């Protein structure tokens, strides 16, 4: 129902906005503030409502309707009329077809058949239709027999080819059991229910849900109708970053017979690993040679105090479910996907550095300048971006990375610290060399990527500890300020920390001193030097804040954009855009929003020699206002993409 409510809410907003009813829209915002999961793009909204064809036909009308609700209403009116006429015609044809000549011989269509006989248990299994991925199909023993050795080998070959979906167990008796694995998210959640911090724990040997070490491959069995069922930990290997990441899972294996000639075919699907993926320490890796320190309770309380203002607060579900996962749509492979509103400030900041790495990284990179990276290429860009941000937070002299461990380091303390089953399990690894930090990040990047983990929280903790919690309080205008705002939104201090390495409270250049009366002066702290990645804000358009040249004109033409309490990314592929005035006359900017269900490349053409049309200011997209804080009065062409209102 939440999806329906979100869609209806977005349709109403689009209707009021397109009609120009500003007071009604303001009233809606006051009673129901704009949601993080709302759909702002008309194209994405049409796709979500499944009315893309209707919208396209509406544009071809002589007088097209302006809003999607009107398009839908017209469709229902016309469809009802057509349906009513079709029903009357069908009834008429049925009546005429039933009037037949009594002398006409009875056809097969009019012959009455005896009721079908009930199927036996064996026949029911044979006639059972193919089930969904969530359904377990069992074909055991005499329910299916192979007639000849030739047919048996053909059937076994067919089973081998399908081993990516099923597990096959056979014996010399010819008995076969096909067990379709449960791979749905809900089934995994049920298996993990009640298991603290499962899927985020790792050790050298395997996974143990009770906290004791368990060796991979150890088998325990139970009896089941003459068949042995064993529960074992099966290891799969994936090559990543020059080493092996061994993923462990708990898998049920059914045995038929106990003969020594029994054959066992097992499959390991990446999809099944979701909540059970761990990263054991490789024997010959940097990770195995560096020992982290357990996070203590006092540091955990201070971490949460800097973030939320209290050690008894914690991250909401939107944050706990968010990691750094890439989009796979054509042309958008570089983009990080945001599940729900809240962590957009962190995601957009990392996204900006990923784009910078892909476009303007080292010249010897084969993917330099491309916007369609492969899996390995974008993963490397993410590794380098994470390391760069953490190194920048540590004043380019040190950095910290937090990593989940098996052992709980401390327990909840009523009144001072509330457990969240994440922070209590962390270990802290410290670095004073950037190349070592980058290598460690490569070996452990899966902890940030794991879609069932909480990579964004781990990264944010790492950034805070790299800067130092006491130093962060000194960076802000007031030591009591928090990095996390209302509803789990990122404050300016958090975004500035990730972009510049300093958690300053403002976006203007340097400092501003205010006379507070007497000898007391209030110092407002801004950005102290040119940033590698820039920042633009809609609040500056409304004169609510000031963004200085250090952020407006960064080293690289990549900007984090703050618009309507949401952060996204704007960038150019021209490295010299900000230093060559000729390039700055007419150029393209690309826009990416990981939360907007974006399904196409959005390319904006900016023309600084042509003044923008300001006749209908009510329908100017907020993104254009943000762009004009950097290039005043410039015209913006969306090149066929639907403007984001």
Notes on the structure:
It is built from 22 helices and 17 strands. The model is unreliable at 99-113, 125-151 and 162-278 (pLDDT under 50). The relative contact order is 0.09. Helix 13 packs parallel to helix 19, helix 14 (375-393) packs across helix 15 (434-443) and helix 14 (375-393) runs parallel beside helix 17 (455-467). It is an alpha+beta fold. A hairpin with a 2-residue loop joins strand 3 and strand 4. It starts with a helix and ends in an 8-residue tail after the last strand. It is 34% helix and 16% strand. The protein has a 6-stranded mixed beta sheet with strand order 12-13-14-15-16-17. A 3-stranded antiparallel beta sheet has the order 2-1-6, with no helix packed on it.
């Amino acid at each position: 129902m939440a999806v329906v409510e979100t869609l209806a809410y977005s349709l109403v907003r689009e209707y009021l906005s397109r009609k120009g009813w500003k007071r009604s829209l303001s009233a809606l915002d006051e009673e129901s503030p704009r949601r993080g999961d709302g759909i702002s793009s008309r194209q994405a909204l049409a796709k979500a409502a499944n009315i893309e064809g209707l919208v396209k036909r509406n544009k071809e009308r002589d007088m097209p309707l302006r809003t999607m609700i009107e398009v839908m209403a017209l469709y229902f009116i016309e469809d009802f009329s057509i349906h009513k006429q079709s029903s009357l015609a069908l009834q008429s044809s049925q009546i005429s077809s039933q009037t037949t000549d009594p002398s006409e011989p009875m056809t097969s269509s009019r012959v009455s058949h005896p009721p079908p006989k009930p199927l036996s248990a064996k026949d029911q299994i044979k006639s059972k239709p193919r089930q969904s991925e969530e359904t377990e199909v069992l074909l055991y023993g005499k329910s299916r027999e192979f007639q000849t050795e030739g047919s048996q080998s053909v059937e076994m070959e067919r089973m081998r080819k399908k081993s990516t979906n099923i597990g096959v167990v056979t014996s010399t008796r010819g008995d076969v059991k096909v067990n379709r694995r449960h791979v749905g998210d809900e089934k995994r959640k049920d298996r993990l229910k009640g298991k603290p911090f499962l899927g985020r724990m790792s050790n050298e040997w395997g996974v143990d849900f009770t906290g004791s070490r368990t060796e991979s491959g150890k088998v325990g069995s139970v009896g089941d109708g003459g068949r042995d069922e064993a529960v074992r930990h099966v290891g799969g290997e994936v090559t990543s970053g020059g080493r092996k990441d061994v993923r462990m899972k708990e898998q049920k294996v059914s045995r038929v017979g106990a003969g020594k000639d029994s054959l066992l075919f097992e499959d390991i699907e990446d999809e099944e690993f979701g909540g059970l993926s761990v990263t054991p320490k490789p024997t010959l890796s940097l990770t195995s040679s560096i020992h982290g320190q357990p996070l203590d309770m006092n540091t955990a309380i201070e971490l949460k105090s800097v973030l939320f203002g209290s050690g008894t607060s914690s991250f909401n579900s939107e944050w706990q479910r968010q990691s750094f996962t890439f989009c796979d749509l054509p042309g958008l492979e570089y983009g990080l996907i945001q599940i729900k509103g809240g962590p957009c400030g962190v995601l957009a900041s990392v996204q900006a550095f990923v784009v910078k790495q892909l476009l303007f990284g080292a010249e010897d990179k084969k993917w330099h300048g491309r916007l369609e990276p492969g899996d390995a290429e974008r993963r490397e860009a993410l590794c380098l971006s994470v390391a760069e941000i953490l190194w920048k937070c540590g004043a380019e002299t040190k950095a910290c990375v937090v990593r989940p461990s098996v052992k709980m380091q401390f327990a909840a303390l009523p009144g001072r610290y509330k457990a969240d089953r994440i922070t209590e399990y962390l270990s802290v690894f410290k670095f004073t060399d950037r190349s070592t930090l980058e290598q460690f990040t490569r070996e452990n990047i899966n902890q940030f990527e794991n879609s069932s983990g909480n990579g964004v929280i781990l990264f944010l903790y790492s950034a805070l500890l790299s800067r130092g919690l006491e130093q962060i309080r000194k960076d802000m205008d007031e030591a009591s300020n928090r990095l996390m705002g209302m509803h789990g939104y990122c404050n300016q201090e958090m975004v500035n920390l990730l972009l510049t390495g300093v958690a300053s409270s403002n976006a203007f250049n340097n400092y501003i001193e205010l006379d507070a009366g007497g000898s007391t002066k209030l110092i407002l702290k801004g950005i102290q030097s040119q940033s590698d990645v820039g920042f633009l804000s809609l609040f500056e358009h409304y004169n609510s804040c000031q963004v200085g040249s250090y952020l407006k004109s960064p080293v690289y033409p990549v900007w984090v954009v703050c618009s309507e309490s949401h952060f996204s990314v704007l960038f150019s592929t021209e490295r010299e855009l900000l230093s060559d005035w000729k390039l700055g006359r007419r150029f393209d900017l690309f826009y990416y929003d990981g939360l907007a269900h974006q399904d196409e490349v959005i390319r904006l053409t900016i023309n600084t020699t042509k003044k923008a049309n300001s006749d209908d200011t009510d329908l100017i997209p907020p993104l254009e206002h943000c762009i004009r804080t950097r290039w005043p009065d410039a015209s913006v062409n969306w090149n066929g993409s639907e403007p984001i209102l």
